[in-house]
């Protein structure tokens, strides 16, 4: 921890003197300042106890937290270090005021479960605070889809995961493109290969359903493939959800009409086992809704759907390819030309 109590006053570790005793702001036990060679100045309990303050803090976390504090200070955000909020019993690393809005800046270096993260965010939201989770080096290795989704944030309209670089003392953003990416035929086939190895219940169920209709999963319509690989909206490949939408439309009568609200709800429901949890994006199922928006536009452009102001109408049903060969020809045509 970088802050301790000196009577009623709060002291930063770098301004504390070695001889004095201070009190832990969390448990009121005595703490001393440590100024070592590896760690920056920080407070530690005189006697080890179960107090959460300072527990398991790495050198990187201490350094980064202080740098983030200074960085916020330089930007005029009037930061407070390790500010304790009694009503939610939480102590964010830094509480800053960005454009007049209280904003929590958390520097996360240790593992954190989705559940715990949601609780923390709930607390901040209760206070009317914004929050930003900045990740440390342990998160720099390849994150799985659920982990990426967990820390994905919307900063100034961009979908990003922020990282703090303690070497250069600066923030870095990993950007997640908000658009569809064109795939090559090779990429589509690679995607299908990966997909073939799935044997979870949802995939097997879809496979069975298609078989009864006389189709193979791999011969799905081409619109199932134009996706944003990078965006961690689903646990597995988004392809699975798109296929389910295709089947849904194949089984709907022509000129079926959905209200926009009903349409979105139905498509969210089709992916209910697949959507990742995104506790740092404010709107519930933000990524799922984004995927629906993209797919709907794609289906309108391809002439399957029509949208008047309030309703979505089915004009044409998607068609499954009759053979792998037929699909490969269609794929080459679709992906080598403009489309
Ligand atoms: Zn303590």
TrEMBL record:
Coiled coil: none annotated. Residues 16-53 form the Competence protein CoiA-like N-terminal domain. InterPro entries: CoiA-like_N (IPR057253), CoiA_nuc (IPR010330). It comes from the Bacteria. Residues 57-171 form the Competence protein CoiA nuclease-like domain. This is Competence protein.
């Amino acid at each position: 921890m970088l802050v301790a109590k000196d009577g009623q006053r709060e002291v930063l570790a770098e301004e504390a003197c070695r001889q004095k005793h201070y009190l832990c702001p969390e448990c009121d036990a005595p703490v001393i300042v440590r100024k070592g060679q590896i760690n920056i100045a920080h407070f530690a309990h005189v006697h080890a106890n179960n107090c959460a303050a300072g527990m398991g803090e790495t050198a990187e976390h201490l350094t980064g937290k202080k740098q983030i504090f200074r960085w916020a200070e330089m930007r005029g955000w009037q930061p407070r270090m390790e500010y304790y909020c009694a009503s939610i019993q939480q102590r964010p690393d830094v509480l800053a005021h960005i454009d007049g809005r209280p904003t929590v800046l958390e520097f996360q270096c240790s593992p954190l479960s989705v559940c715990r993260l949601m609780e923390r965010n709930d607390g901040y939201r209760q206070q009317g605070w914004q929050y930003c989770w900045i990740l440390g080096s342990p998160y720099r290795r390849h994150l799985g889809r659920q982990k990426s989704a967990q820390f994905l944030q919307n900063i100034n309209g961009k979908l990003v995961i922020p990282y703090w670089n303690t070497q250069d003392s600066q923030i870095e953003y990993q950007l997640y493109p908000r658009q569809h990416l064109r795939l090559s035929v090779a990429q589509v086939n690679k995607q299908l290969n990966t997909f073939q190895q799935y044997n979870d219940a949802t995939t097997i169920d879809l496979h069975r359903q298609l078989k009864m209709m006389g189709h193979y999963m791999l011969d799905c319509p081409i619109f199932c493939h134009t996706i944003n690989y990078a965006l961690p909206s689903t646990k597995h490949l988004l392809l699975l959800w798109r296929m389910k939408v295709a089947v849904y439309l194949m089984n709907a009568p022509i000129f079926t009409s959905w209200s926009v609200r009903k349409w979105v709800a139905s498509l969210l429901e089709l992916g209910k086992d697949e959507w990742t949890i995104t506790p740092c994006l404010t709107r519930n199922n933000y990524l799922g809704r984004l995927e629906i928006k993209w797919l709907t536009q794609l289906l309108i452009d391809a002439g399957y759907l029509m949208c008047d102001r309030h309703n979505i109408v089915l004009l044409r049903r998607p068609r499954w390819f009759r053979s792998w060969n037929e699909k490969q020809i269609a794929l080459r045509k679709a992906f080598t030309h403009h489309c």
